[in-house]
Recover the amino acids of this structure.
């Protein structure tokens, strides 16, 4: 059966080109990126799915007053399997990021360019490749009238590029009835050109703004003021001590430990002969799962209290971003072991389980207790000019997805 599906997939290049051409021509930009959302693109996909022969296509609308239609649509379509109590889900997103500086593009970002095996246009990789791979699998099953061993679920979500609040986060929270405890989740939205990377864990992400207030004065009479830059520097050099308190190691991650990095520093005074009275800097922290971000903030505040006492400044802290990591998907869970086996079979490579330093949409699934893996074969040019996607990689990724559906 899989052999017949694979033959069907191998002859799907034209389907992939045609579908990518249609998708590229309907830019789905969220309101934070200056667009009207995913309505038009999702309507196209909804009728595409129906024409393919999906028995049911469910549209979920997350209310969002920031777009003209008032909602952000996601689509759910399932092909029933022999075992209807278990679903293998492939989750892709429909929204894109803006093309950026058009001068950096060699062609119109919203007109698909085909160059041999390579497709070029905004969104072709991020995340149309996931969309088309998941859809050609469905087309093969429907055309060949094959019932997979478990249900095959295609989920096309809105709003991945600007936070997922109106996309996967909404779907998981508002429609928990869609998902069963034995379901398997694949998110084909990150990966290596070698197809070897399977992401199963992520660090917590924590961006902190630190505001140090002293007292401005003339630099020739420093005693008349309080130098906020000196105090900020004193705090910055204490930050690496966080490694001693939060020292958990895990070779799944690269680097295999938390990172605590001072990054941006706002400008203070304009002239050299003024002692600054206010300094603002930022920290980017990627914290190993299992640590509470409040504990990290409290440790930073302890350092800050010391600096306040020593320098006479006052220090305030503001969260810029705070994403507590979800529990990792266990390496021995079915989605992972099955995926490793099928990737190895299709690509003849040795997949590696990995953790990454920032949030992916899989976190919304993991937080809800689902087991999710992020994998695909990507050339890493998402969000860049001349975004590219390989037809042959799309087909091979589809073969992995198809093989996931069969036990043998
Ligand atoms: Zn993406």
């Amino acid at each position: 059966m899989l052999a017949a599906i694979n033959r069907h997939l191998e002859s799907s290049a034209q389907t992939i080109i045609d579908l990518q051409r249609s998708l590229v021509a309907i830019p789905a930009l969220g309101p934070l990126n200056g667009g009207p959302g995913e309505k038009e693109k999702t309507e196209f996909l909804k009728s595409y799915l129906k024409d393919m022969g999906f028995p049911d296509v469910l549209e979920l609308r997350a209310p969002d007053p920031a777009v003209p239609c008032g909602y952000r649509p996601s689509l759910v379509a399932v092909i029933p399997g022999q075992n209807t109590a278990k679903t293998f889900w492939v989750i892709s997103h429909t929204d894109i990021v803006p093309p950026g500086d058009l001068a950096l593009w060699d062609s119109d970002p919203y007109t698909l360019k085909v160059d041999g095996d390579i497709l070029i246009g905004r969104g072709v990789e991020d995340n149309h490749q996931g969309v088309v791979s998941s859809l050609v699998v469905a087309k093969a099953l429907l055309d060949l009238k094959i019932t997979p061993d478990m249900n095959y679920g295609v989920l096309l979500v809105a709003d991945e590029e600007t936070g997922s609040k109106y996309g996967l986060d909404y779907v998981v929270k508002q429609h928990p009835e869609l998902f069963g405890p034995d379901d398997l989740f694949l998110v084909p939205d990150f990966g290596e050109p070698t197809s070897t990377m399977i992401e199963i864990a992520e660090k917590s992400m924590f961006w902190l703004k630190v505001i140090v207030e002293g007292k401005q004065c003339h630099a020739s009479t420093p005693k008349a003021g309080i130098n906020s830059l000196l105090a900020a520097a004193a705090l910055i050099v204490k930050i690496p001590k966080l490694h001693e308190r939060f020292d958990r190691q895990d070779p799944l991650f690269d680097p295999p430990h938390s990172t605590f990095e001072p990054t941006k520093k706002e400008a203070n005074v304009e002239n050299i002969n003024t002692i600054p009275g206010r300094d603002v800097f930022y920290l980017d922290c990627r914290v190993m799962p299992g640590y509470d971000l409040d504990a990290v903030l409290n440790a930073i505040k302890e350092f800050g209290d010391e600096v306040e006492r020593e320098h006479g400044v006052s220090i305030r802290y503001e969260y810029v971003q705070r994403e507590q990591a979800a529990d990792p998907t266990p390496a021995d869970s079915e989605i992972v072991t099955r995926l490793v086996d099928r990737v190895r079979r299709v690509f003849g490579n040795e997949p590696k389980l990995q953790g990454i330093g920032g949030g992916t949409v899989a976190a919304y699934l993991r937080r809800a207790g689902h087991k999710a893996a992020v994998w695909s074969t990507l050339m890493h040019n998402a969000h860049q000019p001349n975004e590219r996607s390989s037809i042959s990689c799309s087909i091979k990724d589809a073969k992995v997805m198809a093989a996931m559906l069969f036990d043998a």
Remarks:
- The two ends are 10 Å apart (CA to CA).
- The pocket of zinc ion is lined by residues 93, 126-127, 160, 189 (CB under 6 Å).
- Residues 196 and 349 are 7 Å apart (CA to CA).
- DSSP finds eleven helices and 17 strands in the chain.
